Amino acid sequence: MVSSTEYGSHTWELTLTVDHQHEDAEKEFRLQVTGDLHVGGLMLKLVEQIKIAQDWSDYAFWWEQKKRWLLKTHWTLDKCGVQADAKLIFTTQHKMLRLRLPNMKTVRLKVSFSSMVFRAVSDICKMLNIRRSEELSLLRQSEGTLKKKKKKDKNSKEPATDDILNLCNSPVSSGLPANPGLYSKTMTPVYDPVSGSPASSTITWFSDGSLTEQNCSILALSHPTCSPEMLAEMYQPRTLADKAKLNAGWLDSSRSLMEQGVLEDDQLLLRFKYYTFFDLNPKYDAVRINQIYEQARWAILLEEIDCTEEEMLIFAALQAYHVSKLSLSSETQDSTCESEVDEVEAALSNLEVTLEGGNKSNILEDITDIPKLADNLKLIRPKKLALKAVKTYWFVFRDTSISYFKNKESAQGEPIEKLNLKGCEVVPDVNVAAKKFGIKLLIPVADGMNEIYLRCDNEDQYARWMAACVLASKGRTMADSSYQPEVQKILSFLQMKNWTMSSQAASEPENVDMKPECFVSPRYTKKFKSKQLTARILEAHQNVSQMSLVEAKLRFIQAWQSLPEFGLSYYIVRFKGSKKDDVLGVSYNRLIRIDMATGDPITTWRFSNMKQWNVNWEIRQVAIEFDQNVSIAFTCLSADCKIIHEYIGGYIFLSTRSKDHNETLDEELFHKLTGGQE
């Protein structure tokens, strides 16, 4: 018989498992609890039962069946929904995690498995001395990208322990609060003249103590030792569907690692997810610039982004330059490098990619006079069943529109056609060696995209018209203060492509110790013999040989940003009302619907025209409304729709950043824009 006092107490038995390292000690405990006991009280009762003297401050309850943490210690068990059948594990919140960085180095560090991924990435970046953590996220390698590796080498092993950089003793790794100030803008840092990274005497200004000088060198220096065999073993996307697999594994930034099935000592990829590199500064961003450069380098080598043969040779020359420069690094004495940093300020102004873009300082200039362009250009309209029709017209570029006339004399009358470029796609069609300077325009119309080619006569004309088209596509005119920097950026890129073969390089390519197969994608390795590649890379090298190492990296990033496909993340979707699958490209300022079979853009929608977007979580459908009563809806087939929802919200969040706000981030706004109401 149960006594009346026991019957009326409403106590029940709860089984708790303690995740500790003491093998001899008991790990499972049964406690009598009541529903009004708060989580903090349950912790206290459990620790008293365990009777092991250790620091339990990092421990919390993990609810195994519900896949969630009980972190609100003032909540009662009733409020949490915990009943007698609940399996609660008392475990550490900070656990070891292996991260593969963009430079393919693996670091092992202690990360919070209970914080939202957004916060966890912020802590990781503090450890690695990477500013602007909001641009990065964690990616789980999808099964499709691992199959090739397994087929290629069934005996392949995980990287040896010696190859893993262990950062587990840092303050953040230990669960301690990180130093909020990463640097002081009033300091005058000292740099390594080769890498541009802070010298040993100033290394402690840039991190929370987890990075030694050697570790910082590993993260801030490029080590492009990649064999053709290694490239062959890595996953190389061949189609748009293959590229979509690369973006399927992004973790949800609004949930913790543990909630998403990540286990202790698992390996994830740390990557730049959002292609808006804000406030790049070689004074403070040695690691960040190098990791962006490495992500760009691998994307090109593995053909994750398409580029022409001419562009591939430029990328190869910049990489080969790194190797030769690094070989001299051990002989170079440490010295201050303020002048080197000043040299790359012009390149930096071109690297900042934001939704607004450009410097807004010359407001009076922008509103008092809107300049125009007027030139003879060739117009080409592709025809499906006929040869391309090429005709010369007198073109006038004003505001965000292009008008063309039969000749200069008739420019006072009505134009033959007026093209509004706002929201269009602008694609370069250039071959410097062949003196071909073309601009491909894909202009949105009711039933898809209107394709038009403009052909310029020379580099200067091309740079002026191309810059005007790029700005007009974003809704900005040539009066915008970013117009001239855009022209200079285009001319600079053309100059890199415009090389001539030196007599020494031409006559003695075999004397150069270079493995060209390490610097180009496998497609070009198959197309050319080794000596041919070496000679052509040396040709391209003539125009980059005078650059500093930091400038060479920035130029590489700049050239990457100039590629038509830069910043596009692909997903396979099914649009509402459609009977076939399409590819959706998500960029920093627009969405593009792409035909999966041909790869041609069908429609473009700008974020600047977006009124609202939401997700129907029951049917996993994303719905977006734009200006002029345009609305679209689609389901995502290659990934969870939450990933696309977060991408859109994330890019809009990043567009709100300002240098005036210093380093502080509105984390609440990020989750409001990206979290959804699932």
UniProtKB/TrEMBL annotation:
GO cellular component: cell projection; focal adhesion
A GO biological process held by the record: integrin-mediated signaling pathway
Sorted UniProt keywords: Cell adhesion, Cell junction, Cell projection
Coiled-coil parts of chain: none
Subcellular location: Cell junction; Cell projection
Any one GO MF annotation of this record: integrin binding
Top-rank taxon, per record: Eukaryota
Residues covered by the PH domain: 378-474
PANTHER family: FERMITIN 2-RELATED, FERMITIN FAMILY HOMOLOG 1
UniProt family annotation: Belongs to the kindlin family.
Protein name: FERM1 protein
Organism, as annotated: Certhia familiaris
Gene name of the record: Fermt1
